[in-house]
Write a structure and sequence with these properties.
By secondary structure, the protein is of the alpha/beta class. Helices cover 24% and strands 25% of the residues. The protein is globular and about 65 Å long.
């Protein structure tokens, strides 16, 4: 029997538009051997996220571009197989060493997580950067108040679904959102979202938002851009706040699309529009995990993942994000050896 191999995914061509199979390579190599002081980790789950599309282009951004021919990186949770003086064999750790099945580390880039409190994969979702993104956006950037009327685009996605639930957990009674299928809208209703709009089934998204939120929007959590951004702007209340968390609608556009046609409303209604990145808010991690752990225990936050099996299917899982194939967090399962 041949020795087990380590498989990893590498970017071999800069995509034009939506990435395809020819842009990636699934490579094999021996499982790495740790040097003294290093740990060997076997990844259990890896995250695929829309922001990774920007890193596939060779342009300056908030995250360095992936280098051609090198293993890509991203969030992952794994189990330590061979430890050092900081991490014992069997410990579960979160890292940015995704897109591979095995890796070695000196431990500086690892964070130990407690799988007795939640499954390992939760630390890539509601208890990880996904949850922290929603939490930081609403609480620190948006200044969420219980009386706020909240609208979330891509509300059934990884960040959007957590943002909806945090708003509800913090006392907001009017929370609405958009999603791309009736199944997603039904799930949002189960979470407590008052109105869920299937944007694929409406010819006038702004009118649909107005019907769902007749008193207008105090706080918009924007994940999509394009028609969703225009619809939210059209329904903002005076002095409203808009958080720009993502603009997935344009990530695969070969040229920048035109801006929202109703941008004048930012002036007319004295809106605050602010973009944010979770990278700037890691100092909230301890407080976030305390609050999120409590909400999970109280049943105020429910988790859902779309799990794709095998690293050989990781790129298909990634491109599936842009087709709306996920409900909640999209994960790739790399090993059953948890």
């Amino acid at each position: 029997m041949s020795a087990p191999k380590n498989r990893d995914v590498r970017l071999i061509r800069r995509p034009s538009g939506l990435p395809g199979p020819a842009d990636f390579e699934l490579a094999e190599s021996p499982i790495p051997s740790p040097l003294p002081g290093q740990v060997l980790v076997r990844n259990l789950f890896m995250s695929v996220d829309p922001y990774m599309r920007g890193r596939m282009s060779d342009r300056k951004s908030y995250a360095a571009p992936y280098q051609l021919g090198e293993t890509m990186t991203g969030g992952a949770v794994g189990r330590v197989v061979s430890g050092n003086d900081r991490f014992a064999a069997g410990d579960h750790v979160v890292s940015q060493n995704g897109w591979r099945e095995w890796f070695v580390s000196d431990g500086d880039d690892l964070r130990k997580v407690d799988v007795s409190l939640a499954p390992a994969e939760a630390y890539l979702g509601v208890l990880g950067m996904t949850g922290l993104t929603a939490y930081a956006g609403l609480t620190r950037i948006g200044g969420l108040k219980p009386e706020d009327r909240v609208f979330v685009s891509a509300a059934a996605g990884a960040v959007g679904s957590v943002a909806c639930q945090i708003a509800l957990a913090m006392g907001c009674e009017i929370v609405a959102g958009s999603a791309g299928t009736d199944e997603k809208c039904a799930w949002l209703k189960q979470l407590g979202v008052r109105d869920a709009i299937n944007y694929r089934e409406t010819d006038d998204l702004a009118a649909a938002v107005a019907e769902a939120m007749p008193s207008g929007i105090d706080l918009a959590f924007e994940n999509v851009g394009g028609a969703h951004l225009e619809a939210a702007l059209a329904n903002m209340r005076e002095q409203g706040r808009m958080l720009i968390c993502g603009l997935i609608d344009q990530y695969n556009s070969p040229a920048p699309p035109p801006g929202p046609r109703n941008l004048v409303l930012v002036l007319a209604r004295r809106l605050t529009v602010r973009g944010f990145l979770v990278l700037d808010h890691f100092d909230l991690m301890e407080r976030f995990q305390e609050d999120m752990s409590r909400w999970l225990a109280e049943g105020k936050i429910k988790t859902r993942q779309t799990v794709v099996g095998g690293i050989e299917n990781a790129t298909a899982a990634f491109t599936g994000l842009f087709h709306g194939n996920n409900i909640g967090k999209m994960l790739v399962k790399l090993s059953d050896d948890g």
